[in-house]
Amino acid sequence: MNSSALPLFSPELACPASECMRYTNVNFLLSRPSLRVSCLVKKGGDVGASNGDGKNSNASVSLQSMHSHKDESFERKRRMHVPLQKTDFVRTLLIDNYDSYTYNVYQELSVINGVPPVVIRNDEWTWEELCHHLYEENAFDNIVISPGPGSPACPEDIGICLQVLQKCWDVPVLGVCLGHQALGYVHGAQVVHASEPIHGRLSEVEHNGCQLFRDIPSGRNYGFKVVRYHSLVIDSESLPKELIPTAWTSPTSTLPFHEAQKVESIFEDPVLVKVGNGSSNHFDYGNTRSKKVLMGIRHSSRPHYGVQFHPESVATCYGSQIFKNFREITEDYWLRFRSSFKEKRAYSNGKLKSFVIKIYSLYFKEVRSSMSAENNAVDQLKKLVHAERDLEYNKTEMKHLEMLNMVNTHHATTGDKCLKLKWRKFSHLAGQVGGAKNIFCELFGHETENTFWLDSSSTEKERARFSFMGGKGGRLWKQLTFRLSHQSDGSSKGGGYLSLEDSQGSAETIFLKEGFLDFLNKELLSYRYDENEYEGLPFDFHGGYVGYIGYDLKVECGVKSNRHKSKTPDACFFFADNLVVVDHKNDDVYILGIHEENSSVTQWLDDTEEKLLSLDGSVKMASGKRDSHYSTLSSNKTGFSAEKSREQYIEDVKECQNYIKDGESYELCLTTQMKKPIKELNSLGLYLHLRERNPAPVSYTHLTP
């Protein structure tokens, strides 16, 4: 391509409607969205390396000067002539700017594109590596730049994304939030503080009807509401001529999601200047650019788009449609500007599906090992691509593709330990015996060690329905306590030490090289059961492991460990084989017992039934004395002392607000400690006190020695 060809190129040229696409069924691939190893498939055709030198050039460099660059690779020019036909999949490189929304984008793209995207962090690949995969391997059809904290002006926040937007003029790119700001910034627009931070709120949006917003309504009260999470915006007055504004906020106020659901339209904001009635798809750009918050832009001559809002959010209307439109933009772009359509892609749809099967079959078997540092995404993908290059599609493998999710979902029923279930129901008993509180206190409160209570103390408006409780009892009961080793970090799990104690008091400690989650997964897969024994139970938890996982255990998912280490175990679980359940909606009580085929739980069921029925008539008499006993924490009159002074805490709040204002985060949790000396701590009494003062729909009490 040369400079003379530029006037012919526009990503907004009218394109014929795309054919009905048959998306590959990849729902089963979404069960583990943290998988970083996706389907990097090389297309056919002659492609080559780019001239990327890894250095930043002037952000305002023109498209013409870049196209006529003397050192531009001949192979890169030929990319435009690689044959391509519309197929069942589009391959996306998703650049993660260290954002919590990235895998929401991943899931949308996985379904819409027909194959999951490849995810890389913005500092994971060098420019040379990206060019190699994009141009030499011809591995991607488009690029999506994720949201993220910070500013596009900060290299540590934006990583390789500016180079992508600056140099990949011949590849479709969609920037979301931070990616949108980066598109403006790299072409000379100013990124400034918004009039106020907007996080987790909805706004109505108007657009100019460009291809990215095709089949999406525009204007006030037309139903196009989007979720916004940003403190910075592109100054619309600073937009260069290369960037065309495509969407703005309507002159209305923002509302939280739950508030927006209550009204048909969003109320007017008297602070914002009204322009027109907001119902037209056509805009006077000169009059609106400075009076509304810019929500979308596109490049005038490159297939580059940006949206300030979050189309991947569940509360954004028509979010999936935006990603579908970007897929069609990508397909139309390559179809229009590649000269030949007679040859086939190197990988037919059948081969790709077989390739997906092989990758994810391998993933389900060895998901933990794939996270290790030495097996990075690029190396694994290259090995798999070469190994499966000549793989032929066949009907047997397609059946495997359709059945794979079901097989893995129900794998627990094929283990080697057969568990049996017996249960009994007592209709309308809960209210007669004083409710969940009295049941727990009478059955488990006298010996509170090794007991648990999954409680629902706030049940109004059906916010919660069931309470589960239990303690040390049957033969299958055991306690697992896990602590990470000091060597565990984000690049190497390092394993940890697991302490096991059974119902007889026998204890042992073992070292788990592959970590706790791997152990727990294998443990759960070792059980099998008869689903018929669970028919008639209105709840999903029927016994098994109950406990907690600490934040530090995230290292087993490839995340770096926290700076501060917890003094408590990183995980602690009971295997609950005896269970009492309270149905707050119907006032029923259930008792359940799990046992192996050669044992029985009849005795525990009989004893528990007798205790429950004996509560009738005696609860009211003893309730006052019991409440007084459990609510007494200490006779010490000393008050609470705060870790920080009031002045220091206020300064910390201001610092957090500045972080949010600068776009470094959309939400910060500022905590401090208050302490009070007590003579003796009654754990159950403390919980009952808090339960009464601050009832919650879901809470968890785990009482250990």
TrEMBL record:
GO terms for biological process, alphabetical: 4-aminobenzoate biosynthetic process; folic acid biosynthetic process; L-tryptophan biosynthetic process; tetrahydrofolate biosynthetic process
InterPro entries assigned: ADC_synthase, Anth_synth_I-like, Anth_synth_I_N, Chorismate_C, Class_I_gatase-like, GATASE, TrpG/PapA_dom
Superkingdom to which the source organism belongs: Eukaryota
Domain Anthranilate synthase component I N-terminal: residue ranges: 447-591
Pathway field: Cofactor biosynthesis; tetrahydrofolate biosynthesis; 4-aminobenzoate from chorismate: step 1/2
Catalytic activity: chorismate + L-glutamine = 4-amino-4-deoxychorismate + L-glutamate
Predominant place of localization: plastid
Localisation: Plastid, Chloroplast
Keywords, comma-separated and alphabetical: Chloroplast, Folate biosynthesis, Glutamine amidotransferase, Multifunctional enzyme, Plastid, Transferase, Transit peptide
Classification via PANTHER family: AMINOBENZOATE/ANTHRANILATE SYNTHASE, AMINODEOXYCHORISMATE SYNTHASE
Functional description taken from the UniProt entry: Bifunctional enzyme that catalyzes the biosynthesis of 4-amino-4-deoxychorismate (ADC) from chorismate and glutamine. In the first step, a glutamine amidotransferase generates ammonia that is channelled between the binding sites of glutamine and chorismate and used along with chorismate in the second step, catalyzed by aminodeoxychorismate synthase, to produce ADC. Required for the synthesis of 4-aminobenzoate (PABA), an important component in tetrahydrofolate biosynthesis. Does not possess ADC lyase activity.
Name the record gives this protein: aminodeoxychorismate synthase
Organism from which the protein derives: Vigna unguiculata
